[in-house]
Amino acid sequence: MDKLLLWMAVFTSLLSEAFAQTDLNWKVFVFPRESETDYVKLIPRLEKPLQNFTLCFRAYSDLSRSQSLFSYSVKGRDNELLIYKEKVGQYSLYIGHSKVTVHGIEEHPSPIHFCTSWESSSGIAEFWVNGKPWVKKGLQRGYTVKSPPSIVLGQEQDAYGGGFDKAQSFVGEIADLYMWDSVLTPDDILSVDSGSPPNPNILDWRDLNYETNGYVAIKPRVWNN
Ligand SMILES: *[C@@H]1O[C@H](CO)[C@@H](O)[C@H](O)[C@H]1NC(C)=O
Where in the chain are the domains? Predict the structure, then answer.
């Protein structure tokens, strides 16, 4: 009986501290140190597999090594959808374990606004960095991105919800993360960039369902880009 009460107390405190559904407008997640234990799990509104998507976020980091920016894995398959920064001016998008890499010029260290979209029917992936289109690439034409995902910020998943590696962790600040089940138009991307995201229906920074783990803090966003 004591054990049951203890578990109930643990469960209740987990619910009240770790889970939240929050408007994070003008807030950031701070990942303040390199680790393999600190991360944020995002709980999406997503029942169906994805034929099209757009994902946008802001990030500010002074790391120059490679790092995971957005890790979406499904059972039995990691790298189902992954945004991985290889180095300054070089980003990779993985879909269903395949990858494309784009190159461009960016200041470092400097906050970025990053958007990427993918359309199954053409396989075309678009990239927007600070509102500028980088070169389009193509991968996994005809594929469907599986669900339900485990979505993690701060770490790269080599397994569903785990398999983290310190050398791939993110250190810095992440904000304004939004995800749609459609490909946004260039005008929409500019609206997101300027702070007016049109109806984000999978992940919405202003109504975010998340769970923090380890050393992660929520602070005001004091930078813009
Ligand atoms: C995905 O986009 C294509 C057009 O690019 C559209 O024909 C298709 O219906 C979309 N799929 C879904 C599930 O929205």
Answer: 27-220
Q: Which atom of ligand 1 is nearest to the CA of 50?
A: 13
Distance 204 CA to ligand 1 centre (A): 21
Q: Are 225 and 113 in contact (CB under 8 A)?
A: yes
Find the length of the chain.
225
Ramachandran angles phi, psi of 44, nearest 5°: -85, 160
CATH architecture of the domain with range 27-220: Sandwich (2.60)
- For residue 179, report the distance from its CA to the centre of ligand 1, in Å: 16
Judge contact between 36 and 156, C-beta under 8 A. no
Residue 121 beta carbon below 6 angstroms from any ligand 1 atom: yes
Distance (angstroms) between ligand 1 centre and the Cα of 185 equals 14
Token pair, residue 8, equals: 């109930």
* Distance (Å, whole) CA 158 – CA 161: 8
pLDDT tens, 179-223? 999 999 999 999 999 999 999 999 999 999 999 999 999 999 999
The answer, yes or no, to whether any atom of ligand 1 lies below 6 A from the CB of 51, is yes
> Which atom belonging to ligand 1 lies closest to the Cα atom of 120?
1
Chain segment 87-108, per-residue pLDDT in tens: 999 999 999 999 999 999 999 9
Conformational region of residue 193, where left means phi above 0, alpha means psi within -120 to 50, and beta covers everything else: alpha
